[in-house]
Task: inverse folding
């Protein structure tokens, strides 16, 4: 299993402060180390060399096996890799990015180049767009939905916006394909994310064991996603990104 932890590197510098901060998190997690630690959002006020040295320090202290980036731009990731090569430090191994049927540009157009050049893969999140890519909304907001929780007003506004309604209509258009493959739209959407080149893992957000089992069923759907099926999905979505001249 992959155990991960994210933090803002600037908040933990200098290095002597880093270890107690992470150790406190590991104690709360009841773990001796995590498989990967993520640097969340690149800080333009922190020199890249300091960030890379901080993450190298974390790994050398045995608190993590690898480090990755989260919500970084392709140029920032490349800078971190170059800095690691220059000073014999440890480079990032993956980028954590939002990716789903309606968020495609970064994972499909920007990150593949890094994957081919330096081997940086993608750990993607929100494969269901915070639940939008399901049939539970269908033009309304259920009382038991997370968007009714305090602090999620932004998502409720998104669901009820014109773009949100259009996206929900697209989800309904995908139902025949899901039925043809013998799966749910959620399983289809997760499998669609997994099929992308360079995607190492897809992070799932579930509220019950039953939901987790259902989402894991996407692994069986993945083998059924033929190029023809993917082309059909692209045709229905109408948002496949194209290289810019």
Result:
């Amino acid at each position: 299993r992959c155990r991960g932890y994210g933090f803002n590197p600037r908040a933990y510098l200098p290095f002597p402060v880093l270890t107690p901060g992470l150790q406190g998190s590991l104690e709360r997690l009841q773990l001796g180390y995590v498989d990967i630690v993520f640097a969340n959002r690149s800080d333009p006020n922190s020199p890249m060399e300091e960030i890379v040295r901080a993450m190298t320090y974390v790994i050398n202290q045995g608190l993590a096996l690898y480090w990755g980036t989260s919500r970084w731009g392709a140029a920032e990731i490349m800078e971190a890799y170059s800095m690691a090569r220059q000073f014999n430090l440890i480079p990032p191994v993956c980028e954590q990015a939002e990716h789903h049927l309606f968020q495609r540009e970064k994972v499909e157009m920007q990150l593949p180049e890094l994957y081919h050049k330096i081997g940086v893969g993608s750990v993607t999140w929100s494969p269901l767009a915070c639940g939008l890519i399901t049939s539970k909304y269908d033009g309304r907001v259920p009382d038991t939905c997370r968007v009714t929780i305090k602090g999620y007003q932004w998502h409720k506004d998104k669901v009820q916006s014109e773009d949100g309604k259009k996206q929900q209509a697209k989800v309904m258009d995908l139902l025949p394909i899901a039925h043809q493959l013998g799966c749910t739209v959620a399983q289809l959407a997760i499998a669609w994310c997994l099929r992308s080149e360079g995607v190492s893992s897809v992070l799932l957000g579930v509220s019950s064991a039953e939901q987790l089992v259902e989402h894991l069923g996407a692994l069986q759907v993945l083998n059924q996603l033929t190029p023809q099926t993917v082309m059909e999905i692209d045709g229905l979505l109408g948002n496949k990104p194209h290289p810019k001249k």
